[in-house]
Specification:
alpha/beta; Alpha-Beta Plaits; 2 domains; six-stranded parallel beta sheet; five-stranded antiparallel beta sheet; 7 helices; globular; RCK_N; monoatomic cation transmembrane transporter activity; RCK_C_sf; Potassium transporter TrkA
Length: 223
Amino acid sequence: MAHFVIMGCGRVGATLAHALEDSGHSVAIIDQDERAFRRLRTGFGGRKITGVGFDQDTLKQADIENAYAFAAVSSGDNSNILATRVARETFHVEHVVARIYDPGRAEIYQRLGIPTVAAVRWSADQVLRRILPETAIKGDFREPSGRLFLCELALHPEWIGHHIVDIEQATEIRVAYLTRFGEGILPGPDTSYQQGDTVHAMVVSTRSADVARILAAAPLKEN
């Protein structure tokens, strides 16, 4: 079980809160308007905190210091980005994502290393794939036999600097492409995984759990 903090209790935030709680995790949800919590179902067991999501004291009330991930999904782009930066830079939350309505701004923040989801292509599933390990490897495309699927992978920070071929050999996957600075690139023999990259790979369905486990840990040290 992990702890998640959500900023914004609109339909998106409430959906995320319910999905995370149903997965057995603890949840704290923040909103400036106490009435927003009416969107939460009866019996919701998470924390409901009235306040500004980028305020450090408010975030501490949400137990941000023990959070596995932070999702800013309020209706304000600036608030979402500011809250995400505070969560990452002040409280060192590794897994963060911000919902952005303006696709152009979303691309700019993506280039700065802040994971964003533009509202024009947003869905609760997209956000969950970025913060919840067990859903991060369900895949975006599955070939007809069902044996292979294309998915977005999460890597431990210590994979940064390693060649893509090293990642493939360690996991028995095939990296299809990388998203870097908002653009897709095809990896070559000398391409290395960089901070901010998103890795998209073909994975054998029966090995998905092993792949997730290997990449969630630091690469093995060579003797």
